[in-house]
Structures are given as C-alpha cells and as structure tokens.
Amino acid sequence: MRNGKMKTLHGLYKTLGRDLFLELAKNYSDHVHDTIDATLDEMECRWFDAAHTITEADKMVEDYNRGRLLGYDVGVTVTAAPAMKMEVMS
Q: Among residues 12, 23, 39, which one has the least CA distance to residue 71?
C-alpha cells in the first residue's frame, strides 16, 4: 500500500479480516453474501449513491482512507488486529 492508502476493496478485506469486513460491508451494501468473493463482486458493480458517482466498494475504501467507516462513531479508526507472533519456549 503506497502512501498508507488503501487502493482496493480486496486489500481492505485482507487488512480487516473476513468477519469484520463482512460486518462493516453491511453498512455500505444490501448485497453482502456469506462469501468474500460474492460480496466483493457485488460491491464493485453497485452504485452507492443515486447519482451514480461512486460504487459501494469505492465509498468503503474512501471512508477507510479518511479514518472512518460507516457504523462507527466519528473519530474512531478501525485497525486490523496485530499479527500473532510465535515464540519458541526453551
């Protein structure tokens, strides 16, 4: 991710994880499915607004890049869980 900005909905899914992504996607689309691929496909081809200026996918990515996602209070940034680290016990 260049300049710390998310570029794609797939990248956002990878960052947030499956469950959180699907839960947040419900705030952007009425077409969230049980599978990631079906949800991504739907959101990338559906308009978010009546004027057809932005897709559901682009709106969700834009909001993430601005530090806000629909369904969360203003000022709250959703971040991915830290990576797990294994330590060898001796």
A: 23
CA distances from 54 to 30, 58, 63, 66, 78 (A): 16, 6, 12, 16, 22
Q: Is the pTM of this model over 0.90?
A: no
Q: Is 87 exposed, middle or buried (0-12, 13-18, 19+ CB in 10 A)?
A: exposed
Chain position carrying tokens 């996918």: 57
pLDDT band at 3 (very low <50, low <70, confident <90, very high): low
Residue 64 burial (10 A CB sphere; 0-12, 13-18, 19+)? buried
